[in-house]
Amino acid sequence: MPFSNFPKMPQLFIIPTPIGNLEDVTLRALRILKEVDVVIAEDTRTSGFLLKHFGIEKKILPHHKFNERSTVNTIIDQLKAGKKIALLSDAGTPGISDPGELLIKACTEQNIPVECLPGATALIPALVISGFATSSFVFEGFLPRKKGRQAKLKELSKENRTILLYESPHRIKKTIEQSAHYFGNERRACICRELTKLHEEVLRGSLGELKEICKKRKLKGEMVVVIEGKG
Ligand code: SAM
C-alpha cells in the first residue's frame, strides 16, 4: 500500500539555513524552529549561534556524519513518542552533501511524516547564475578525493546536461585542471564563489581560462563549479 504524508502532521522538519546571508532564513523556518521540541544539528555550536541570533532558545543535539548511524534509532524513538524535531545542517539544506539522508530514509521506511522546507542551498543559485541550461542538470556534490575521481570526470565529460560540483578552496585548482583535461580547454564553465556573502564572485570562462585564473589567484571561500553540458 503506498504511503502518503497526508493528512498526518509532519514530525521531522528539514530546515534549510542561510549559506551566508542571514536574511535568507525563511519566516516559516523560524516559526517551526520555535515550535519544535528538539533541534538536531550537524554542529551544535554553529546552529546555536544561528538560533541565538534569531532569539530562539532550544535544546540542540548533535547529528553529524560521525554519529548519524548510531543516533538515527534514538531520534526515530523520539519521533514515535510524538516529539517534533527539526534537523539543521551548518548551511543550506540538510541532506544535500550534508547529514540527513539516513534519518529521512529511516522515517520514510517507518511511516514517520517528514517535511522539507524550501530554502537556501548553494546549488540552485549557482545553476541559475551560470547562464547555462537550467532545464536539465546533474548535481554531483563533491567529487571523490582519490579513488574513482578520474573515472567520474571522464564519465561526466560525456554528459549533455549542465554539471554542478561542490568544491573546497584546497582542491579547486586540481579540479579545474583535471576538468580541463577531461572536458577540454574550450568547454565553458564558471566558479560561483561565496554566494550571498560580501565577497560573492562569479568567474566565467572556458576551463582553459579558469585554469589560468586558478594558477594566478588562490581562490578562497566556498564554491560551486558549474560546467556547461556537452550539448
Ligand atoms: N547543504 C549545503 C547546500 O544545501 O548547499 C551544502 C553543504 S556542503 C558540506 C558545503 C559546500 O557547499 C561547499 O564546499 C561549497 O561547495 C557549497 N557552498 C556552501 N555555501 C556556499 C556559498 N555561500 N557559496 C558557494 N558555495 C557554497
What does this structure look like?
This protein is α/β, with parallel strands linked by helices. Helix content is 34%, strand content 20%. The protein is built from eight helices and ten strands. It has helices at 27-35, 44-53, 68-80, 101-109, 123-130, 149-156, 172-183, 207-216; strands at residues 12-14, 38-41, 60-62, 85-88, 114-116, 137-142, 162-167, 188-193, 201-206, 223-227. The strands form two sheets. A five-stranded parallel β-sheet has the order 3-2-4-1-5, sandwiched between helices. Strands 6-7-10-8-9 form a five-stranded mixed β-sheet. Strand 8 (188-193) and strand 9 (201-206) form a beta hairpin. Helix 6 packs across helix 7. The structure holds S-adenosylmethionine. S-adenosylmethionine is lined by residues 19-20, 89, 91-93, 96-98, 121-123, 166-168, 192, 194-197, 222-224.
Envelope shape: elongated
Q: Which small compounds were modeled alongside the protein?
A: S-adenosylmethionine
Largest sheet data: 5 strands, parallel
For the CA atoms, what is the radius of gyration?
19 Å
Average pLDDT number? 95
In whole angstroms, the N-to-C terminal distance is 41 Å
| Approximate strand percentage | 15-25%
Secondary structural class: alpha/beta
Order of helices and strands: EHEHEHEHEHEHEHEEHE
Helicity level: 25-40%
Low-confidence parts lasting 5 or more residues at pLDDT below 50?
none
Count of DSSP helices? Answer: 8
**Topology, number of strands:** 10
